[in-house]
Design goal:
Blueprint (H helix, E strand, L loop, with lengths): L26 H4 L7 H10 L7 H8 L5 E5 L6 H15 L3 E3 L2 E3 L3 E2 L8 E4 L3 H6 L1 H15 L3 E3 L6 H6 L6 E4 L6 H10 L9 E5 L3 H12 L6 E4 L19 E7 L13 H5 L2 H21 E11 L8 H10 L4 E3 L12 E2 L6 E3 L9 E3 L2 H9 L31 E3 L1 H4 L4 E8 L12 H4 L14 H9 L3 H4 L32 E2 L5 H9 L11 E3 L9 E4 L2 H9 L7 E4 L1 E6 L12 E2 L5 H4 L8 E4 L1 H9 L12 H8 L3 E7 L2 E3 L2 E3 L3 E7 L4 E3 L3 H12 L17 H4 L3 E3 L2 E2 L24 H7 L3
Parallel strand pairs: 7-8, 7-10, 8-9, 10-11, 24-25
Antiparallel strand pairs: 1-5, 1-6, 2-3, 4-5, 9-21, 11-17, 12-17, 13-16, 14-15, 16-17, 18-19, 19-20, 20-22, 22-23, 25-28, 26-27, 28-29, 30-31
Helix pairs in contact: 6-23, 11-12
Bound molecules: S-adenosylmethionine.
Protein name: SAM-dependent MTase RsmB/NOP-type domain-containing protein
Main location: nucleus
GO cellular component, one term: nucleus
């Protein structure tokens, strides 16, 4: 089976290859420009996805604007507090909102969502834009989403991870993960109280650019147990562990690319493009992804298969074909008692297969059986190809469909609870199943050679590491020195050949005795709990050059037993320390700061007196000026402490409360850089502005002074001299937008593409 062709649609699948402009298909004669599509109606009426009497309600619901829904991100210590703010501050203010003579309800909680942590806003966008209470609420939503306390997500899309039933020790795989909303839910489940999880999540997507969306998205919910990979999920490689063991997953989510007709309420273009061929052509890829997932699942493990398509050819047909490919080894789990308030429809045990040949009227042709279809091909009545492929036999209901418990699958219909459409099936592997499944397609699917080269050039970290370190051939035998320590011992010698088409930076672990690690331990008074042997860098030689990531032991085991290019690892762990470029570098004992992303990971290991307390007075000054002199702060404990502190990074806890014209509902941890005479809040300017708006109701941040070329003298660079000959220290992050903002314990990242998907209301 080939990859879907044509442009990608909202669900990452192939879109209708025949475009609206394809005159030969007489498109406009077939498809209305309004929200209707005769082929869609004919197809789904025939499928009996609901009783006939409900058809009009179904269509009517599909034509309505989809309500905005969002989750309070579950693993935050402050989730309840955020939920209470919505419930007790905003909702009461949104009673009795009237617009153009009509009353609109305030946001309501989704009854089926655990802990009532998910919300729905029914008011249409224009009401939100034009009425003060909703406008205020929107500002709150945008701010909290930016900092990662809320996550905008379609209600039905929240469902699959809930049925995955993830526990903190689980080894999980999210096969088609981008942009990452379900990935975030799995991370939350792995880290329920933001404790260091022993579990693993590999978040994978075949689209390289989208893996970077994943990296940004998961930056809001950093996890030491996270790896992001870039693979065709149907070819996902086997992963080696210590002692030659092979990794098997406790939980796998296969949220596969699909035709996406369940998203008709928000992707209106689907009304014009829908065709039965879309679902038919995706079936085989979906099946291969599901079968690959089945092979990698631990006996007794759970696998959730989901699509946002109503189409049985992408849903029940895939499930039954996969079950029949492994008779007796998997069963569909009866989850009718889980999430009892969630209305769902049972899966179908029989369905129809329709073909839409590329002829003028795009008439649907039904084929009762595969044999009938073959006969039609033979007689020349049907082209041998639907999208050039021919329909696979597995599209038709198998003879044993009635025995597979397909009714345990769930179809979410829009008119049941005012949502989009979705299909979810929970599968479990029998506990007695052999780990090495004899029908495993592993051998045939693990070769990275099959993957086209599509990687970007190496990043600056790699280049820098290559410049700073000996060439790989010689480094293996080089004697370790202070500055280029040997990589930590690996359990086995890596014999795998590198896939040179994959050009992300390598990963290696820093020696726990490295001088830079010692400087971190000294600066942050890191306790014995600090996982100093789990510090990873993005170069081959264990050199902490710019960024240090923290991983957990299972991630380390994977990285040390598998060539990173074979696994196509885009990122791993949490960015915990970033080197601070500074004009005063030589005088600074510890040249590392904690980026806001990683602050929560470092926090539990910090010794007494490391975390400094501050108020909104200090925050105001730090936001107003990029490098406020210590002098400029009000007299008090903060100023006294700051005057005495060594240069370097401080972790500051800004206490909750109302002060200085601002309000902070929850405490917030942020990194502050202490220079000789001045301070600097170490978040990027965009995040400063967001924080300012959120806390002080206005953007109080002055524009940053021009960045100084550190190779030039201040006077050459035209730099402002701050005080007593001290030059302003330009906080050099790894690119604007990279620094996160750890508010209420979590982080946010800027990413234009994610923003597009996440624009609230
Ligand atoms: C429905 S979206 C996934 C949505 C995601 N699970 C979420 O909740 O944010 C499908 C994703 O599958 C990816 N995809 C398409 N074909 C794939 C393949 N063969 N292997 C892995 N991912 C694939 C697309 O790039 C797209 O990001």
């Amino acid at each position: 089976m080939g990859k879907p062709r044509g442009k990608k649609n909202a669900r990452g699948g192939a879109s209708q290859p025949r475009s609206r402009d394809d005159k030969s298909n007489d498109w406009n004669a077939f498809v209305g420009t309004d929200k209707s599509n005769a082929g869609f109606e004919e197809y789904y009426k025939a499928q009996n996805i609901m009783p006939e009497g409900e058809w009009e309600a179904f269509l009517e619901s599909l034509r309505k604007e989809l309500p905005v829904t969002f989750r309070v991100t579950g693993s935050r210590a402050h989730a309840e507090t955020i939920n209470d703010i919505i419930k007790n501050t905003y909702v009461p203010n949104m009673q009795n909102v009237e617009f153009e003579g009509k009353k609109y309800d305030p946001p309501s909680q989704l009854s089926w969502y655990p802990g009532s942590l998910a919300w729905q806003v029914d008011a249409p966008k224009r009401v939100v834009r034009k009425t003060e209470p909703f406008k205020n609420f929107q500002r709150f939503l945008v701010g909290e989403t930016e900092v990662g306390n809320l996550s905008r997500q379609e209600a039905v899309s929240m469902i699959p991870p809930l049925f995955l039933d993830v526990e903190p020790h689980h080894l999980c795989l999210d096969m088609c993960a981008a942009p990452g909303s379900k990935t975030a839910q799995i991370i939350e489940a792995l880290n329920p109280h933001h404790t260091a999880s022993t579990g693993l999540l590999i978040a994978n997507d075949s689209d390289y650019k989208r893996t970077h969306m994943l990296v940004h998205q998961t930056g809001r919910m950093p996890s030491r147990g996270l790896i992001v990979t870039n693979f065709d999920a149907s070819l996902f490689p086997s992963i080696k562990l210590n002692g030659g063991k092979q990794l098997q997953f406790d939980r796998i989510l296969a949220d596969v690319p699909c035709s996406g007709d369940g998203t008709l309420r928000k992707n209106l273009e689907i009304w014009g493009k829908w065709g039965a061929a879309d679902g038919n052509s995706l079936h085989s890829l979906q099946l291969r992804i599901l079968e690959r997932a089945m092979n990698m699942l631990k006996p007794g493990g759970r696998l959730v298969y989901s699509t946002c398509s109503f189409n049985p050819s992408e849903d029940e047909a895939v499930i039954s074909a996969a079950l029949n490919a492994k008779p007796g080894r998997f069963h569909i789990v009866d989850v009718s008692s889980e999430l009892p308030e969630l209305k769902r429809r049972p899966g179908l045990s029989t369905w129809k297969v329709g073909s839409q040949p590329a002829v003028k009227d795009r008439q649907l042709v039904w084929y009762e059986t595969f044999e009938q279809y073959k006969e039609a091909i033979k007689n020349g009545e049907e082209k041998a190809n639907d999208r050039g492929k021919g329909l696979p036999k597995t599209l038709w209901p198998p003879a044993n469909a009635g025995e597979l418990n397909l009714e345990r699958c769930m179809r979410l219909l829009p008119h049941d609870q005012n949502t989009g459409g979705f299909f979810v099936c929970v599968l479990e592997k029998s506990a007695g199943t052999s780990a090495n499944d004899p029908t495993s397609i592993e051998e045939a699917t693990t070769s990275t050679l099959k993957r086209p080269a599509s990687s970007p050039p190496p990043s600056s970290e790699t280049k820098r590491a290559r410049e700073a370190s000996p060439a790989p051939e010689t480094s293996a035998t080089a004697t370790p020195t202070e500055t280029t320590p040997a990589p930590t011992a690996k359990p086995e010698d890596k014999k795998e050949k590198r896939d040179l088409t994959f050009r992300e930076d390598p990963l290696s672990y820093v020696s726990p005795d490295h001088e830079e690690v010692k400087s971190l331990i000294e600066r942050f008074k890191l306790k014995d709990t600090f996982p100093r042997d789990n510090l990873m860098v993005r170069n081959d030689y264990g050199d902490p050059l710019r960024t240090i990531y923290m991983t957990n032991p299972i991630v380390k085991e994977i990285i040390q037993n598998n060539d990173y290019t074979r696994l196509r690892i885009v990122s791993a762990g949490v960015k915990c320390f970033a080197r601070q470029d500074s004009s005063q570098r030589t005088e600074i004992r510890c040249k590392w700061r904690t980026p806001a992303d990683g602050i929560l990971e470092v926090l539990p290991h910090c010794g007494e007196g490391v975390v400094l307390s501050a108020t909104l007075n200090e925050l105001r000054t730090l936001l107003e000026d990029h490098y406020p002199p210590v002098e400029s702060f009000k007299e008090g404990q903060w100023k006294t402490i700051m005057t005495e502190r060594d240069m370097g990074c401080e972790i500051v806890k800004f206490e909750a409360g109302s002060l200085a014209g601002g309000e902070l509902p929850l405490p917030m941890y942020l990194p502050v850089w202490k220079a000789k005479m001045s301070l600097s809040l170490m978040i990027d300017k965009r995040e400063k502005s967001i924080l300012s708006l959120r806390t002080f109701g206005e953007d109080i941040c002055k524009p940053p002074p021009p960045q100084r070329d550190l190779n030039k003298k201040p006077e050459e660079a035209g730099e402002e001299i701050k005080a007593e000959g001290e030059t302003a220290e330009v906080p050099v992050t790894e690119g604007e937008g990279e620094a996160g903002l750890a508010l209420v314990g979590e982080v946010a990242k800027g990413d234009a593409e994610i923003k597009q998907e996440q624009v609230l209301l």
